[in-house]
Amino acid sequence: MLRFLLVGALTAAVVITGFAAVVGGWAWWLILGLLAGLLVLGTYDLLQRRHSVLRNYPVLGHMRYLLESLRPELQQYFIERNYDGRPYDRDVRTIIYERAKGIHGELSFGTERDIEEVGYEYLVHSTAPVPEPAEPPRVLIGGPECSRPYSMSLLNISSMSFGALSANALRALNKGAAMGGFAHDTGEGGLTPYHLDGGGDVVWEIGSGYFGTRTEDGRFDPEKFVDQAAHPQVKTISLKLSQGAKPGIGGVLPAAKVSDEIARYRGVPAHEKCVSPSAHSAFHTPRELIRFIATMRELSGGKPVGFKLCVGSRVEVLAICKAMLDEGTAPDFIIVDGAEGGTAAAPLEYEDHVGLPLTSGLITVHNALVGSGLRERIKIGASGKVALGNDIVKRLIQGADYTNSARAMMMAVGCIQAQRCHTNTCPVGVATQDPKRARALDVEDKSVRAYRYQDATVRQSSRIMASLGVSDPSGLTPHMLHKKVGATEIRSYAELYEWLAPGELVAESPQSWAADWTAASPDTFRPVMRR
Fold this sequence. Notes:
With 531 residues, this protein is an alpha/beta fold. It folds into two domains: 2-65; 139-478 and 487-505, Aldolase class I (TIM Barrel, Alpha-Beta Barrel), CATH 3.20.20. Helices cover 40% and strands 11% of the residues. Helix 14 packs across helix 17. The longest helix has 25 residues, at 443-467.
């Protein structure tokens, strides 16, 4: 409404000033010219489709781009003051925006971070790089019990529900996924037409609320599941155990964002806060979890089925591995969500103090699967602040097969990180259910930007791998990622972390894992204390 009021006010001002100019002096004509120019600018802002901020805030929105033009000076100002408590690294946001616009991401004058600081990580290039592959590698998802495997890109859209994002944002993301051949995760809010409109491949995520496949009392409904899973765009199905931003509690959609339409897709009351249970009702033990995943795979007609979690206890991960071994079946993939990830609103205590960060969680899951002899049949995805090509390569070295990104994908379709997601007042139409605000996001323009960003980032990861001397992720090793751990000490990831041999936990657990392996039981998620 503000945009129309402003343009209407300018129109009225032009008319009034026009009369004054006719009867008044030359000064009125100058004022008339200025107001007429602003009116033309405001009208253009309303009609153009490239900039969501200007569509929602005509004329006034240009202040943002004025400040953006001063970015180098402002960035230096913030560097000197250690802005918001963190050292200012290379401006990742700028690179994402530029890639989305089709602009090359080269920057001048070398690194902007202190590469001598403790904690600095770097990839070890080869003196004899190999040629970059013509097409980036892909990952085949699907174990021995999967009859319909899926070829996954190295970078995909992480889980974001209809409700968290607007219909136009999801349309743009899905169409971008179709253009680039990468996957689009629905989030736990259900499979909606907006996740399908663009024709892109979909990962259907199911959380503890079973939205889109729930009975009236909120339990899993097999009949609805079969109907939804049969959609040809649904390529894989992901069961969400926990998420990085708030592991251990269910997702929350504020009442202001639970429209009649969202309530219909989720199967919940409209205009009431929608809270997912903290735990699933379909299973209560690791063994039941693995059986449930096998059931979903069968009901889906053999599509890949896996689960997502933010790692907390290593014992729980090992308990799930023991359940796989006992039951003789396993998920086709596991997505590890880092505690630093998550775009949803969450309590500060959970964001900063609960759950393992992605590096630790990823290495834990990778080692548990290797040591249990299960790694060859299960692929691992990684999500948590994955934004650039170096992030992809690092996660592949740490044990992942592919990566997912939410925050960077939001930025590619116009998010300016106003951090108003939970208020329904997103200024660029990305994270809102207000149709007046959402209309600012042009699907055609932003879908191309999502495609450009993903394509450029994946190709950059292939280029980095070639610089390391490998043409395929299978050639990456922990020796290729180093970290500065002291003023004069640098160690590789091969030295920093323990890497188990295939089947080592089952054959004879190393001392560092023996206690946790003994405490893990397929019949409970809690540690079992044995004498």
